[in-house]
Amino acid sequence: MADLWFHQATSRCSDWPLGRVLEAKQASALTVSVVIPARDEAATVGAIVERIVAELAAPGVVDEVVVMDSDSRDGTGHIAAKAGARVHRTMAVAPEAGWFPGKGEALWKSLFVTRGDVLVFVDADLTVWSSRFVVGLLGPLLTRPETLLVKAFYRRLSAPGGGDRGGRVTELMARPMLNLLWPELATVVQPLAGEWAVRRSLLETLPIPVGYGVELACLLDTYQRHGLTALAQVDLGARGHRQRPVEELGVMAAELLAVVHRRRAWSRTGALTPLLRQFDSDAGWTARAVPTMERSPARSEPAYYRGEASNAC
Q1: pLDDT tens-place string over residues 36-90
Q2: Using CA atoms, how far apart are residues 120 and 234, in angstroms rounded to an integer?
Q3: What is the DSSP code string of 19-48?
Q4: Which pTM value belongs to this model?
Q5: Helix (H) or strand (E) holding 232
Q6: What angle do the packed helices 76-83 and 45-52 form, to 10 degrees?
Q7: Which residue, among 109, 116, 106, 111, has the nearest Cα to 28 in the 3D structure?
Q8: Strands 32-38 and 118-121, sheet pairing
Q9: Less CB within 10 Å around the terminal CB: N or C of the chain?
């Protein structure tokens, strides 16, 4: 089943030329929001916003570009706004619902301040990329009504100055878990990819982990509710981004385990321990917090309001 899905649901970015996607968007009458979650990404966020605005918003492929600024201290929000994005401080959106640090929180809060029928998520730390990423992700959603969520995959570039190509959490945690527990998803090439697209009508019904587990949770929940036919993936070519230290990757892996814990019968074993103990031969033991909180579906929130652009920076 996994191999059949791969051949039927996988396309390349070149399969979706700009003109074809723009024509499909106009025929569908759907609107598109690009959302960029960011925290202290002043070095890269401006160029990302500028390119999307110039190359996609101007011709009408994208209707709005929104940056969700998660308490940045380096001017990320100011730079993004100057580049042409509408910027919202995550903690100021729907304040009655509270605030948690984390990527998933930013994506959940973006539902409250965007208008698009389709949301495309793009990471803010990209160094090698193309606006064609957005176009490719939109292709299956705008042409196939049965498609609800589209994942990117790409060739990872080595970090500047050497180093690995990234994808360590994918290869050491996410892929083994999918192969063992959800083998039908074994041919999802990059289940944790930060570039993905989704219909609002789906995302607003899903529980959203506040941290790094958001991509895996949305993939699993979409599959379990709607089956493989709701999923697609697009090869976007090459991608480069900032690499994370291994200590941070350990916390990310623990967050993925928390996501799986909630979606398997293991949950009967008791509450999750929200700390990861790590050992360093020089510093000794440290304990890092593991975000395990999940937001309820946005549609169930009294504060949920679609399309009102309040709390902007």
Answers
A1: 999 999 999 999 999 999 999 999 999 999 999 998 999 999 999 999 999 999 9
A2: 13
A3: HHHHHHHHHHT--EEEEEEESS-TTTHHHH
A4: 0.89
A5: strand 231-241
A6: 20
A7: 116
A8: parallel
A9: N
